Amino acid sequence: MTNQSNSRDVWVFIEQEEGVIADVSLELLAKAQELAGTLDSQVCGLMCGYQVEDLAETVIHHGADRVLWADHPELEMYRTLPYAKVTTKLVQEQQPYILIFGATAIGRDLAPRVASASRAGLTADCTDLQIGDYTSKKDKRTYNDLLLQIRPAFGGNIIATIINPKMHPQMATVREGVMRRQEPDVTRQGSVEKIEPTFDESDLALRILSRETRESEINLKDSPIIVSGGGGVDSEESFELVRELAHVLGGEVGASRAAVDAGLVSREHQVGQTGTTVRPRLYIAAGISGAVQHRAGMDESAKIIAINTDPNAPIFEIAHYKIVGDLTEVIPMMIRALREKAK
Q1: Block means of pLDDT (10 residues each) for the chain, length 343 residues?
Q2: Cβ within 8 Å of residue 112, ≥6 positions away
Q3: Disulfide engineering: 227 pairs with which of 120, 213, 246, 309, CB 3.0-4.6 Å?
Q4: Which structural domains are found in the chain, ordered by start?
Q5: In this structure, how many other beta carbons lie within 10 angstroms of the beta carbon of residue 185?
Q6: Is the pTM higher than 0.90?
Q7: What DSSP line would sit under 245-311, residue for residue?
Q8: Rounded to 5, what percent of the chain is helix, strand, coil?
Q9: How many angstroms separate the Cα of 106 from the Cα of each of 30, 31, 219?
Q10: Cβ neighbours of residue 24 closer than 8 Å, sequence gap 6 or more
Q11: DSSP string, 87-115
Q12: Residue 129 is inside which H or E element, if any?
């Protein structure tokens, strides 16, 4: 069975809460613009909410050619069933070629439901999206201009390219920070189509009685300096050195998954494939071996300093400055030098 679309448009689900667009949605608009340029098609931003029409202009400035805005009081806060009904209906009616979501709590909840209802495939946590061709080994048929959905697999040991030649839309979720966000172009023009959905009682079975939010105090993604500790930091006392160096440099504290799993720091600090993707001006990796999962989240840093006792550690392959030594000796020396320079 096939469900191919005649459209070539690239859609981005625009996630917003309380009138603020999620960073990942703006990042995906930049990637969608690149994909649509290859396909000679348009970018459409799909946004659900209530009285958030002012956000449509922001979506256009960041790369959309048109915006579908579903406006209804029941869409003011995210709930699975109303959002899934609206999104699925629009997808089935207009049949986009590609549909991408941020790999957030909302995106990971919504995207599978839309994929299932549309009988389309979905690739989660992609690290790159490209347009390319594929020739089937079975029937030798060539499929042109497919979405190449690229992501680590088997614990990060390989990079898999996943395709969906027959069932459209081609769908993927992408982690925040993986794609580069572009500066808005305030001269861009686009169209806005307001959708006024209707809901059945069954769509509104779940009610939100109260809502509490907590803002994270950690902002790894926007920090220009990050000092991260890994599995080589074998105690809380040693990790305090990582914190102190970050403090002296005016940066944020990061960590590999090994340090997080060891309970040395909270998961909010995790950098890597299953954490946050960062591109600081300076990234210091202390006691981090450099597994591919971690490097995927920081290898685009402008300058990387690695400290490790193992001269063959994989982290040294991408480091600009390599320090072979014990971090409990090296970091105090760095701290002293920095404080003396500041006098």
Answers
A1: 71 94 96 96 96 94 96 94 96 96 95 95 92 89 93 75 91 91 93 94 88 80 94 93 95 95 93 88 96 89 96 95 96 94 77
A2: 122
A3: 246
A4: 10-204 (3.40.50.620), 225-342 (3.40.50.1220)
A5: 12
A6: no
A7: HHHHHT-EEEE-HHHHHTTSS-GGGBBSTTSB----SEEEEES----HHHHTTTTT-SEEEEEES-T
A8: 30, 30, 40
A9: 20, 20, 20
A10: 15, 102, 103, 104, 107, 174, 175, 176, 177
A11: HHHHHHHH--SEEEEESSHHHHHHHHHHH
A12: strand 128-135
Calpha distance 42→61 (Å, rounded): 14
Maximum Cα interatomic distance, the chain, rounded to a whole number of Å: 72
Angle at 314 between CA 310 and CA 320, to 5 degrees: 95
Q: Rounded mean pLDDT of the chain?
A: 92
Residue environment code for 219-250, b if the CB has 16+ CB neighbours within 10 A, otherwise e: ebbebebbbbbbbbbeeeebbebbebbbebbe
Residue in this structure with the two tokens 């982290």, named with its chain if needed: 315
